[in-house]
């Protein structure tokens, strides 16, 4: 398939680096596209899930301002 694309300068620099290593233009573009696709798949697979646990705090830390006031208290 042939098409015209506009390539940003940072991507063009990476393509040129890959071409200096011996890859052709199409090979370099395909390699970069595949890297991008595989990293997107990895992000989906490892989605973050927050797990809360009670740790026995004696201070309400839901308000950062209150915690900072408590830490600044000289008592």
Structure notes:
The chain is elongated, with a radius of gyration of 25 Å. 56% of the residues lie in helices and 0% in strands. The model has no long low-confidence stretch (mean pLDDT 85). With 75 residues, it is mainly alpha-helical. The N and C termini lie far apart (74 Å). The chain has helices at residues 9-20, 25-45, 64-72. It has three helices and no strands. The chain has a domain at 9-45.
What is the structure about, briefly put?
The chain has 75 residues and is mainly alpha-helical. The protein has helices at 9-20, 25-45, 64-72. The protein is built from 3 helices and no strands.
Features:
75 residues; mainly alpha; 56% helix
Q: Note the overall shape.
A: elongated
By secondary-structure content and strand pairing, the structural class works out as: mainly alpha
Quaternary state reads: single chain
Low-pLDDT residue intervals, each spanning 5 or more residues: none
Alpha carbon gap, first and last residue: 74 Å
Would you tell me the overall average pLDDT?
A: 85
Number of strands: 0
Give the helix tally.
3
The radius of gyration over CA amounts to: 25 Å
Beta-strand fraction estimate: under 5%
Largest sheet: none
Helix content: 55-70%
């Amino acid at each position: 398939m042939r098409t015209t694309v506009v390539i940003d300068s940072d991507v063009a620099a990476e393509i040129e680096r890959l071409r200096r290593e011996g890859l052709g233009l199409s090979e370099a573009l395909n390699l970069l596209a595949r890297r991008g696709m595989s990293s997107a798949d990895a992000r989906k697979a490892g989605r973050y899930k927050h797990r809360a646990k009670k740790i026995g705090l004696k201070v309400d830390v839901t308000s950062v301002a209150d915690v900072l006031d408590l830490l600044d208290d000289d008592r």
